[in-house]
Specification:
The structure holds two protein chains of two kinds. Helix content of chain A is 40%, strand content 15%. By secondary structure, chain A is of the alpha/beta class. In chain B, 77% of the residues lie in helices and 0% in strands. The two termini of chain B are 22 Å apart. Classes of the chains: A alpha/beta, B mainly alpha.
């Protein structure tokens, strides 16, 4: 009896975990790095037989595209690098609720209270600096210090990217509008804009600037390859719950308009589960694993030691950030 | 100048009463076709205007009249002013050296002068960014743009130089003009049609190009528009910037009109076509002339070869993920071929009108066709996304819509190529075919288009080159799961995975070579037909 029951339960659980694959599979609007999402989707397809088609774009671009498409969206799943684009789609009411079993894979802090999406990976803000020019005592104590005249023309960032805009979103939550606007104005006058974190890091490496506000994994990725874009670079973690210690959460969610919800949810669950998190630990993405009990790549400073500020992901307001940055002349 | 090309026969034919009504109707049919294409072209503009109206005057003023827009306007203008004259001068000089002097290896140099066409602009930018990381801003943007875009002047100019009647130059020489005076007073005036076409193309490119300037850290309207779209997608700010860009483009068109002139380009009667005499460079001039050609080749081809070569060696065989590369290559070939065919077909009616029926309406229609070329692909793509999502959902993210976007974006390329070759087909042949009983439309198809076929092929090659490297519209409009060489290259360079990105760049170049070869051969045909 028990045996039958347990086998019944387990087969039910299996059905939950792996719905019968439909021939068309699922469409994932992917704003994460393509190599990471491809590693996820290839392994997922191998395991479940569910075909995954990826569409490429940046966070805000794809988030807005989903909003534009509305109920007609071909997307089944949306995956981002940062939370603001998830918030954008969530605010438009376009995500389907995820099952408790899926949500339970990650800690509460890494998903919104409404259970419409969850964090699947994370990246830490860092100050990548030129170790041939700067010693640790000369580094800024807070990201806010970069607005001071002492740092004028010495640092870089990638203001046009969703990555940096997520950091500004955290600053807005932590420091308020007036202080953020002032900081952005100082940034316009006193920093060098690059397109892309990797390009900003290269600029530090070649000595064009002394430091850059980027995310941590670009450095580790390059170190693992040839290190030729980061040979002179070291990372400074702001810690002390500074806005510059912000940890940005990459999100995944299932679209309410999806015609393949069970398969879509199975994919999200897989990414947040052991399979997806293991790829973060062993692959060459160097992003943090976030699921309960998941280990990140041993080369990284553990997430728990970063002393990141507590920012509710759903409070990150990409629209307000864009407006402030446009006003400051950065966009 | 114009008197040379005015044969008496055309005027008597033009007055022939039997021909006029026929041609009148033909003109109506072609105008209707051109108007239909223009209607499609106006979609992005209608979209911009609709957004502007929705935004409201106060916000529009706040978004347009701000310091950042001033910055971008200044950057864009400075770029146009530094690149266009430099590319024109360099293009004419290179053309004259390879076509009209006894410089050693002229043929090989001619190939080298066209070769940069096969290097996509953003690959050129990526190569220079790796080669000289400190190069950025206006000087960097100017240098790389001149290197990448000079062939747009060089090609039509060599074509024209080969068509010129050497008798004119000989007469001028016999009247005691020095070689320099012959060049400035006889040759140069006859080059203004190809030069104005090439200059317009370069001008449009500078307005719309994203990848190159993003790589070299120079902000133009196009890069700022894409930044805005990536931050707020359909925000009013991006659309207002695009609106300013349309105005810049109208400025270019006015300049083009002023510069183009209105002489007849076709001649009736074969004359005695023969090659012009080449000027002896002599011992003193040979070395600096060779130096110039060599410098251009080294900067435009050497730097990309060096960067790509280095990564190829570093990546070795593992970097060639054959199945991914083959898929992206196949997709790119399909879009380039189909898109080139559609775009060139769409450009025929307006090109014919430009040559046969110039006038106020034709100019307005032509402006509709050309302004789209100044918009970054993303603006065009976004208009099409919005329209298809709302009114033609089955077409959304279909390959057909992507082809339509390509057709809109690259119409100017096709039009400028076609305009030049149609201008050389004497209208009298069309009339004669009509007089011999062919319906006018058939006469155009069988006579004019057949004679202009090489020009049509060249137009297709130019469009194909553009599609091979198009990025922003492709990302937005392509069917799910589509990967082209350009999109893959872009995403891999973003991850600093240069080893994996390089094969995509190499394949883009390999795919571009046959098109560049075709353009070159077409330009070197002595009579242009």
């Amino acid at each position: 009896m028990l045996g039958i029951l347990s086998s019944g339960v387990s087969s039910f659980a299996l059905a939950q975990a792996a719905p019968a694959p439909s021939p068309e599979g699922i469409v994932v609007y992917n704003a994460q790095h393509e190599s990471l999402t491809r590693a996820w989707s290839d392994a997922f397809t191998k395991e479940t037989g569910i075909k995954v088609t990826l569409r490429k774009g940046s966070d805000t671009e794809l988030g807005n595209q989903i909003v534009q498409e509305g109920a007609a969206s071909p997307a089944d799943v949306f995956i981002t690098e940062n939370s603001p684009a998830m918030v954008l789609v969530d605010n438009a009411g376009l995500f389907a609720p995820l099952s408790p079993a899926t949500l339970d894979l990650v800690p509460d802090a890494l998903r919104p209270a409404n259970g419409k999406w969850l964090g699947v990976a994370a990246r830490s803000t860092v100050f990548a600096y030129d170790k041939t020019k700067l010693s640790e005592d000369k580094l800024p104590k807070s990201i806010m210090d970069l607005a001071s005249p002492a740092w004028k023309d010495r640092w870089a960032a990638s203001p046009s990217g969703a990555d940096f805009q997520a950091i500004v979103g955290a600053m807005l939550v932590l420091k308020g509008e007036a202080e953020t606007a002032t900081w952005l104005k100082a940034m316009k006058a006193g920093s060098k804009p690059y397109r892309g974190n990797s390009v900003a890091m290269k600029a530090v490496n070649t000595g064009e600037v002394e430091g850059a506000v980027i995310y941590h994994y670009y450095f580790f990725g390059d170190q693992a390859k040839t290190a030729e874009n980061s040979g002179n670079v070291a990372l400074h973690y702001f810690r002390q719950q500074d806005p510059g210690a912000f940890v940005s959460v990459s999100g995944a969610g299932v679209l309410a308009s999806s015609k393949h919800k069970p398969e879509a949810e199975a994919f999200v669950k897989w990414v947040a589960g052991k399979g997806g998190q293991d790829i973060l630990r062993t692959g060459d993405s160097f992003e943090y694993a976030v699921a309960k009990g998941a280990e990140s790549n041993p080369k990284l400073v553990p997430l728990a030691q970063l002393d990141a500020p507590k920012v509710e992901p759903s409070k990150l307001d990409s629209k307000a950030v864009t407006e402030l940055m446009t006003k400051a002349g950065l966009l | 100048m114009s008197t040379v090309f005015q044969p008496a026969v055309s005027t008597s034919l033009r007055r022939h009463p039997a021909l006029r009504p026929l041609h009148g109707r033909l003109h109506e049919v072609v105008t209707a076709a051109a108007a239909l294409v223009a209607l499609f072209c106006l979609a992005p503009l209608a979209f911009l205007i609709a957004i502007t109206i929705q935004t409201g005057a106060d916000t529009v003023v706040a978004l347009v009249f701000r310091a950042r827009v001033g910055e971008l306007l200044l950057n864009t203008l400075l770029l146009e002013l530094s690149v266009v004259p430099a590319a024109v001068a360099l293009g004419i000089l290179l053309a004259w050296l390879t076509e009209r002097t006894t410089i050693p290896g002229a043929r090989a140099w001619s190939w080298l002068a066209v070769a940069p066409l096969a290097v996509p602009a953003f690959v050129q930018g990526y190569a220079w960014a790796s080669f000289a990381p400190h190069l950025h801003g206006l000087p960097g943007a100017t240098l790389i743009s001149v290197l990448a875009y000079t062939p747009f002047i060089y090609l039509p100019v060599i074509a024209q130089l080969r068509r010129l009647d050497p008798a004119l130059e000989e007469i001028a020489t016999s009247l005691g003009r020095s070689p320099r005076q012959v060049f400035t007073q006889v040759v140069l005036p006859q080059l203004h049609l190809p030069v104005s076409g090439g200059a317009l193309l370069i001008g449009l490119h500078l307005l719309a190009e994203y990848g190159l300037f993003a790589m070299i850290r120079f902000d133009t309207f196009a890069t700022a528009i894409i930044d805005q779209f990536q931050s707020s997608y359909n925000g009013p700010a991006a659309n207002m910037l695009a609106g300013v860009l349309v105005l810049c483009c109208l400025g270019l068109l006015v300049l083009d009109r002023a510069f183009r002139g209105r002489e007849r380009q076709a001649r009736v009667g074969s004359g005695a076509p023969r090659a012009a005499t080449r000027l002896k460079t002599g011992r003193i001039w040979t070395v600096p002339c060779l130096g110039l050609l060599l410098t251009y080749a080294l900067l435009s081809l050497g730097v990309p070869s060096l960067t790509l070569g280095r990564w190829l060696v570093l990546g070795g065989v593992e970097a060639w993920r054959i199945s991914d590369l083959a898929a992206a290559f196949g997709t790119t070939v399909f879009y380039a071929a189909a898109g080139a065919a559609l775009t060139s077909a769409a450009a025929i009616p307006i090109a014919w009108l430009c040559v046969r029926r110039p006038g106020l309406w034709q100019r307005r229609l032509e402006a509709c066709h050309v302004y789209v070329g100044s918009l970054p692909g993303i603006v065009v793509a976004l208009a099409l996304v919005t329209i298809t999502v709302r009114v033609a959902l089955p077409l959304y993210q279909s390959w057909f819509m992507l082809l339509v976007a390509y057709a809109l974006i690259f119409l100017p390329r096709a039009l400028i190529g076609l305009r030049g070759s149609l201008a050389q087909v004497p209208v009298e042949l069309e009339w004669a075919a009509s007089a011999l009983g062919r319906p006018p439309l058939l006469a155009v198809l069988q006579v004019t288009l057949r004679l202009a076929a090489p020009g049509l092929a060249a137009a297709m090659a130019l469009v194909g080159l553009g599609i091979t490297t198009e990025l922003t519209a492709t990302l937005l409009l392509s069917p799910n799961g589509t990967r082209t060489l350009a999109t893959e290259f872009w995403s891999l360079t973003g991850e600093i995975d240069y080893v994996a990105a390089t094969p995509y760049a190499v394949l883009m170049i390999i795919l571009s070579i046959p098109m560049a070869v075709m353009l070159h051969r077409q330009s070197r045909k002595a009579n242009g037909l």
